What does this fold into?
Amino acid sequence: MSDHGWTEHFTPEGEPYYHNTQTNQTQWEKPPELMGDSGFDAGDWCWMPDDVEAFVPAKLIGKYNGKVELQTQDGMTHYLSEKDYEHIELNPVSLQKNVPDLVLLDDMNIPLILHQIKERCEQEKIYTNVGTILISVNPYKRLPLYTQDVMDDYAHRGDRELPPHPFIIGDECYKDLWDTNQNQSILVSGESGAGKTECTKVILQYLAEIAGSSSGVEQRILKANPILEAFGNAKTIRNNNSSRFGKWVEIHFDEGGSICGCRNLNYLLEKSRVVYQAPNERNYHIFYQLLKCEDPELLNNFGLDPNCSSYYYLDQSGTTDVSGIDDKQEFEEVVSSMEDLGFSHEEKLEILRVVAAVLVLGNIKFKPDPTNDEKSIVDNPEILSHVADLLSVDANALAEALIVRSMTIRGEVTVCPLNVSAAEESRDSLAKYLYNTLFEWLVNRVNVALEEDIGNKKTMVIGVLDIFGFEIFEKNSFEQLCINFTNEKLQQKFNQTTFKEEEAVYNREGITYDHVDFIDNQVVLDLIEQKPNGLMVLLDEELKMPALSRSDDNFLMKACQRHADNERFKKPVKIADALSIEHYAGHVTYDVNGFLDKNKDQMYDDLIKVITGTRNDFILSIVGDLSSQMGGKKASLGSQFRQQLNALMNMINSTNPHYIRCVKPNSNKRPAAEDFDAPMSCRQLRYAGVFEAVNIRRIGYPFRLTHEKFFKRYRCLTPQLSGTNYRQLCEQMLNQIDGNWSDIQFGKTMMLYRATAQRQLDLQRNLAVRSLLIKAQALYRRHRARYRYNEMNAGRIRLREAINSRSIPNLQKEIASCVDHTFETAELLEARHMIKYLEEEIRLKSIFEGLINKLENSMEPPKMDLANLEQAVADADSVGLDNPLANTARDLLTTIHERIETKINLEEGVATHNLEMLEEAISKLGRLGIDQSSPSVSNAKREVERLHTENEHITNIVNAMSINGMFNGVTIDRRGEVSLSDQARTALNNSTNNGKSFGLLTERGIIALTSGDFLIKIRNAIQSDDWDTVESINSQVVSAGEDVFQEAPEFQAARDQVSLRKDIAETSEKLQLAAQQFDSAQLDIQLQTARTLEMEGIEPYQQLLDNIRAINAACSQALQAVDLNLLNNACTMAEQIGYPHQDYVDTRTLRDIVHGLTQELTEQLQVVPERVQIEDLCNRCQQVNLNTTQTQELNEIVNLGEEELTKTQMKAALTLGDHARVILKTVQLKELFFASFGGNFRWERFRGFKTPDEYAKAKMFGKDKLKQSFLVWTKDPIPTSLTHIEDKMAQKEAPKVFKELLGWCGEKSNAYPAALVNSILTKGITHPELRNEIFCQIIKQMKNNPSEDSKNKLWQLMYVAVKCFVPTEEFENYLEMYIKNAGDKYWYLIQTLHETSFRGPLTVAPSADEIRNEVAKVHGPKPNDEDLITQLQNAQTSVSNAPVNENVDHSQSAYATPAPAPIPGGPPGGPPGRAPAPAPGGLPPSGPPGGAPGRAPAPAPAPGGLPPPPSRSPAPAPGGLPPPPGY
It folds into this structure.
C-alpha cells in the first residue's frame, strides 16, 4: 500500500470512488495524490470569458485600478474590466469528472456544464442528461450507437445504468404509457441542423423494435420516413437533410402493448422553397431523385431531361448534388416504401407526374406583349403545352390563366392583364399550390396505410414531435415568423413542465426553497397572437381592407403604433420595411415585404378553374373541392397555422411530455469531436432553457425518494434501526451518520436532497455494502461448507456401520441416501464393493465346497469339474474374495494344473530329447505326489543320462571346429588363408567319427556331425589345391543354412579365398579392356578394385585414368563456359595420347547460343512462365542439343499436366514474392478442382447446417413455418443460428447478425444501414466461429428473394465480408462454388476471397464510410490473366506508395494491407531455394603442362608385370598386366 493511504474502488454501476485507509476519509473526487501532472498549480482559479472557447480556466492574479488581472494556462496575462467581471470559481479537480447527468455536478455553473458537454463530444459521447431532459449534440458523422446490439442492450437494461440515449427516452415513454395510463409525448427541439429528424427516426426505430406488432405495422411506420423526407426535406445552408415542415407522429398501441397503427400530422410546409432556393441550398429531394432514377422510360413518358440544370426551379442556387446523399438510391427506397405501404402502380405514376409537372412549370417563360408592355405572353408555348399535357388541362386555358387575372368588383367581372413579373408570380403560385396539395395528400395516404389496423380499438398514444427549429437568417420573412412563433409555444410548454412543475413538487411536499427566475416568454406569445393587437391578428385585419388600400406598409405602421411600449418589439432604425422581436432564442429582424401576400396564400380564381377542369382523376382527388377558396373566401395562412398550432398544443398538453434538446455544434458541418463551437453551443443551451433547468436542480432538490425507499436504501449505514414509521427512522438514521446533512429536506411523503448529500450518502453506502457483501459471502460459504460437511460426515458414519454389519439391505439403503453428495467418499466406494463382495461370497461357498471334496486327491480330474473350478476361482478373484475356503480352492486349482503339466512334460521331453524339460519335470514329482515308479518316469530318467553323454560328444566337435575359440594348431590370416597342424586335423576327424558311432539324436548333435563332415572335406580339397571342389562345398554349406554351424571360422575363410582368386583374375582382364577403350569410368572402377585386392603393377593405368579425366574435365568445362583457350588446351591434351574427341569444335560454334540460352533458362526456371513460353524455350534448347539439369528440369515442367504446372507456377510465385500471381494461380487451381468435383459442393449440402428440426426447436410455436423458411428468404428474424456453433456467446450473436442483415437489405427499416454492416463485420472478425454463419445467412436470403434490390445488397454485403475474412476450410469450397454458379459477373468476389485468404483476416472492421465506398464500386467484366495480375500489382503498389498521414493511425484502418509474410527458402541474392549458377569452367591452375593435370608423370611399369601370387593364393593372369596404350 502507498504512503498516502488512498485506494480506488468502484460502485456496482462502475463509477470510481476513493477511500483513505489511514484517515477513513471517502470521496468521489480523485485525490491529488493519485493524479499525475494536471497543469494546475496553487492559486485562485476561475473561469474567464473567451471569444473562441466561451470560457477558459484562468488564475486570478489580482484586482487594481478597476481592472482584474488573470493568467491562463499558457502563461498569457489578460485584463478585464472589474465592472463587467463575474467571478466563477473553478475547482481543478472538477475538470477530471465526466458525468452523464449534469445534475450530478457539484459545481453546476455554465462554464463547467459547457466543458462537460464538450469533453463528452470529444469522446464521441453525444448524449448528456439534465435530469429527465436529454441533450443531443449533432455529431456530424456516423457513430455505432444505433446497431441491433445497442438496441438490445437498452431494451434489456433492467436496473443497469446505461449512458444517456434517445433509446432511454423511448423506453421510459413506453413504460410510463402503461404505468400511468396516460398518453405520452416526446418533444424534439433545436435549431435547424441540430439533428432533430435523426433523433425522431431513432426513437421510432426503437419503439418499433420493443413493441412490434402482429401485422408488421411497425415496419410500415418506418417505411413512411423515406416518403415524407423525400417530399418534405431539403438541403439548407445548415443541414443537408433539413425538415421543411413540422411533423407530429402519433403511434397507437393496443391493449396488449403492441403497435396497431400510426397517424402523421404535418404543419406549415415551406412552399416558397418549391420556386426559390437561396445559394448553396436545394429544392425538395424528390425532384433530384426523380431525375437521377435508373428508369429512362419513366423520364421519357414525362418528357423529362435528366440534367438538373435544365430546370429553373432547380438551377437557381448553384447546388444540385450533396455529399453523402445518393439521390438515385434514395429514389429506389422511396418507390420501395410506397410499394410496402400499398401504393398502387397508378398512384406512384400519378404522384411522379405531378412532381414532373411542377418541375416543367417552372420553365415557362414570359415576355412583354409587343402591343403593350403592361401585358405579357408566354415565350415558350411548347413548354406550356408540355405542362398542360402532364396536368391533363387545356393549354390555351392554362396560358390565359397565367397571364390575366379576373376580379369581381360589385358583381362585375373585370379581367386585368398581368405583366411579366406578375405572370411569373402567378406561375409560381400554381407550382406551390400543386406541390403543397400533393404533399398533404401524401401524408393522408400514408396515414391510410398506417391507420388500417386501429379501427375501433381502444388505444394509447405516444406522440413524437419533429418540428422546424428556431431560425435566424440574414433575411427573415413571414415563414420565419410562423416557425419562431411555434418554437415560442413549445418553449412555453417546456418552461411549464420543467420549471413550474418542479416548484409544484416542493410546494406539495411543504419544503422551503429559493424561487428561480426563468425566461417566461408569454409576453412574446401575446405580442404575436393576442387579440386585438397581436401581429398575426393585425395582419389578418389588413387583409380585410379594400385591395387598393391594404399594404405591408400599413400593417407595419399599425404594429409600431400599438406595440411602441413593448420592450420585446422594436422598429429598426436603419431598415425601413422591417420590425424586430426579442425572442427567447435571440433578436430577430423580419422583412415585412410580402407579408400580406404570403398570409393570404390564395390561388387566383382563374387558375382554380383550370385545375378543376383537369381530365386527370388523380389531380382532381388531391386538389379536392376548391369552390370554398374562390372569391377570397379562404382563411389566411396565419389563421390556419394558429389553429393547427393550438390543436397541436392541446394534444401535447393532454400527454406527459419528455424532452430532447438538440444542439448544433458548429456551422461548418464538421464532426463535433473535432470542431465544437463553444459560444454557439452555449447560446443554444441558454435559449433552450438548459441552464435554467440545471440551476433549479442546483438550487432545488433533484434527488427524491419516499421515506420508506430512502430508509431502505441507506439502512445498511444503521443496521440496528427498525420499525415502520419511516419518516422518524430517516431522522434517526441521519442523526447517527457522520456528515453534514443540511442539504436534505424532510417532505410530507419523501426525502428531497441535493447532489452533495446524495454523493456523501452513496459514498458511505458503497463502503457499507462492500463490507456487508464480503461478510455475507463469507457467512454463506461457511454455512454451505458446514452443511455439506455434516451431511457427508453423517453419511460416512452410516456407511461405515453398514459395511461393518455386512448386511446387503443396509448397504443398499445407505448408498441410496448418499446420492446427493458433492463427491464420492471412500466409504461410499467401499460400500458398493462390499455389496458385490457379499453376493459373490454367498454364491461361491457351495460351489467351492463341492469341487474341493471331489477333486482334492484326483490325479486326472474330469474336464467339466476342472472348468467349473477355474471359473469359480476367477469370480472370487474379480471381487477380491479372501476367505479360507476361497484360498483352499485357489491352492487346489494350482496343484491340479501343475500335475497335468508335469505328466505332459515327461512324455514330451523323452520324445524330443529335451534335457531341460525332463530335469524340471522330474524335480516336481515328489512335491506333486506323482508315482516315481511309473514307466514314464523311468523312461525319462534313462533319457536324461543319455543326453548328458551326447552333449559331451557335441562339445568335442564344436571345439575341434574352433567355434568356441581357435583350436590349438589352427591359424587364419586376414586374407582368409588357413594353417593347420596334424594334431588339429586329427582332433576333428576323431571327434566326428566318435559322434557318429554314439548316435547323436538331438538337433544340435545332428548339426555338429554335418558341420564336421563339411569342414573335413574342405580341408582335404584345399590341401590338394582343388579350388573348384572348395567352391562346390562352400555352396553346399551356405545352402544348408541353420543345419550347419555357419559360425565356424574355417567356412568363411574358405569362401574368402575362393572369392579373392576370382576377383583378381576378373579385374586384370577388365583393366586391360578399359585401357584399350579409353573408358575412364571402368578404369576408375577396376583400379579401385585392384587396390582393394592389393594387386601390383597398376600405376600406368592410374596415370592413364588421370589424363582422361583431365581431358574430360577440360572439354566439359569448356562446353559450359564456352572458353576458346580451354577448348584448345583440351584438344592438345587429347592428341598427345591419341584421345579421339573433338568436342572443342562444337563448343566454339555454340558458344554464343548456349550462353544466351543458359541465362534464359535460369530466369524462366525461377519464374516458371506460361506453357507456350516454356515450350518455345525447350524447342530452342533441343535444336542445339543443349542438355543440362536446367533443360531437364524445364522438360519435366513442360510435361506436367495443367494442375501440376499451375501448382509449380504458384510455388515459383511464392518464392519470388509475386503475390498477384499467387492469387491468380490459386484461382486457376480452384477452377480445375471445381471442374471435376464442383457438383459435390452445393451449398445446401454443407454439413455444418443444422437440420430443419434442430433449427425449429428454438421456437415454441410456428415450427412448421420455421422449417419451411430454414434455407430460403424470409423477412422475419431467425430464433437461432443456421449452423452448428460450439461457442455459446457466438451462437447468441447469430440472430442479432440476421436482424442487422435484414436492416441492411431493407427488410427492416434502419436509418444507419452501413453501421449495421460494420457491426456484422465486427462480429465476424471477433468471433471466427460466426464467419460460416454470416455467409450462410447471406446465401439463405438470396434464395427465392423477390427483390432485386435486396439481392444486390446481399452481394454487396458478401463482397465487404470476404474483404474482411473468409469462411473456414470446411465451408470455403461451398461458398466459392455458390459464387461461381451465380455467373461470371461476380468474378471479383472469388478474386477477393483468395486475396483475403492469402493476406489473412482483418483485425478491425471497416468504418461506415469505408463500407459505403466499397459497396459503391462498379466491377467490370472479368479481365484476362495478364490484366488481372497487373491490377493486383497496381493495387499493392498503390497501398504501399500511398501518402502517409501522420495524424492517422494506419494500423487501425480496416483495409490497410499487411506486409506479406517472408517466403522461406533460398540464399539471399539468388533464386530462393536454388543453388547459384556455377562459375565459368576451366582447368585448375595447378599441374605441369602435358600429362594429367595436377599430377606428376607416372613412373614406367615394373618389368615383368605383376609379381607372382603368394603361396596357395589365387594366381594372377599369366604374364602380368601389359602397359596401357600410349606408353
User: Anything to note?
Assistant: Confidence is low (pLDDT under 50) at residues 1438-1453, 1456-1520.
